[in-house]
Amino acid sequence: MALWDRLREGLQRTRQGLGARIRSVLGASQWNEAVFEQLEGVLYEADLGVEVVEELLQELRAAVRGGRVQPGEDAIAVLQRLLEAGLPPPTDPWRLGGERPEVWLVVGVNGTGKTTTAAKMAHALRQQGRSVILGAADTFRAAAVEQLERWGERIGVEVVRQAMGADPAAVAFDTVQAAVSRRLDLAIIDTAGRLHNKSQLMEELKKVARVVGRAAPGAPHRVWLVLDATTGQNGLIQARVFTEAVAVNGIVLTKLDGTAKGGIAMAIYRELGVPVELIGVGEGVDDLLPFQPREYVAAILGASVPDPYGST
User: Fold this and answer.
1) Which carries the bigger pLDDT value, residue 112 or residue 49?
2) Which helix (H) or strand (E) holds 300?
3) Measuring CA to CA, how many Å separate 169 from each of 59, 68, 162, 188?
4) Which phi and psi angles does 282 have, rounded to 5°?
5) What pTM, to 2 d.p., does this model score?
6) Are 140 and 71 members of one domain?
7) Fewer CB in a 10 Å sphere around the end CB: N or C, the chain?
8) Does 24 fall in a domain?
9) Contact indicator for 52, 266 with CB cutoff of 8 Å
10) How far from the centroid of its chain's Cα atoms is residue 172's Cα?
């Protein structure tokens, strides 16, 4: 299946929920306050966040007052442009810098799909001909280590691990050292998502970041925060804590196929100033897709745009 088709299929619930309701509201025969109130409610429920919703409504009201937009498809097109404007330009999430090995940390709370995301990243890079190693540094959860090892066997990538309860920083260090000695392109480290309390988790993450920095120049080169799209605004609360502890520079938004809301990507960028670069739209190994803002908005609203991935 083409990537564009997978994106549209993965966002089907959002399109049928959020998109259908937006199109219904904006399909009114004429503008009145009731239309704006209904649209406001839909946008809030979509997890766009208070500031984003207020700005969208302000812009739309101004366009209506100026006679620049009519109800129906015209209004949907205007909303589409406004939503796109609230997102950063697309990036290449698979880019690597000049250092070898490059080191990526994958952080986030348990249940977001963090471990699975680390494995899918490794698979995607390996498909591009990159040499990759995985580090199972979530040593406080046997299930996480075992899950990563199963993924490693499935995708043909070595996984560095230690005994349960081992120092996560030691696992991270060993992973980077293995990548250095074997002259690999990339080390991806799955970090702990839960400790006895929040402050302990954050201190552990800081330690991991320091240790990999000693093992490889400039490491960690990327810190990916994995957020579950179904948690909505609650995910932002978690995100604030992680971004205060480590230098997060990329967001992975998972489980978009499991939510009828889907607007959280806009709120994330507005709140954190960190771009969503990857989205998870399924359980398959290839269901981790580069985030394309224009196509993401179009898929949500059910609009038509050219295939951004160049497939036929």
Assistant:
1) 112
2) helix 293-301
3) 48, 57, 11, 13
4) 170, 180
5) 0.88
6) no
7) C
8) yes
9) yes
10) 23
